[in-house]
Amino acid sequence: MSESAANTITIDDEVLANQVRVLEGVASRIKGLTGPAATTLGSTSFGVINSYLVGPINHWAARSGECVETAGEFTTRMAGGVDDARRLFAECEENAIALLKKLDLGGEQ
What we know:
By secondary structure, the chain is mainly alpha-helical.
């Protein structure tokens, strides 16, 4: 039986650590945009003729701010999930190595 990529899982700790750093950076940048995305317009922004536009645009801006905030929260959670997976994979690998060492030594530590 030949071994294929589908039969092999390779965990590269540095790749996962880099992914965590990237996600944390993205989350930070997204969270910095929450305020600007939710900026509202003054009641005279479009003049008297188009003043009816201010309410709907302000509602849209508020929802946009909420969406940006949610995206930041999701990205922060993704970073945490990748970091947890990284930690658990490392722990599993350490346990497997310890078990193999124990078996290689005939059951002695």
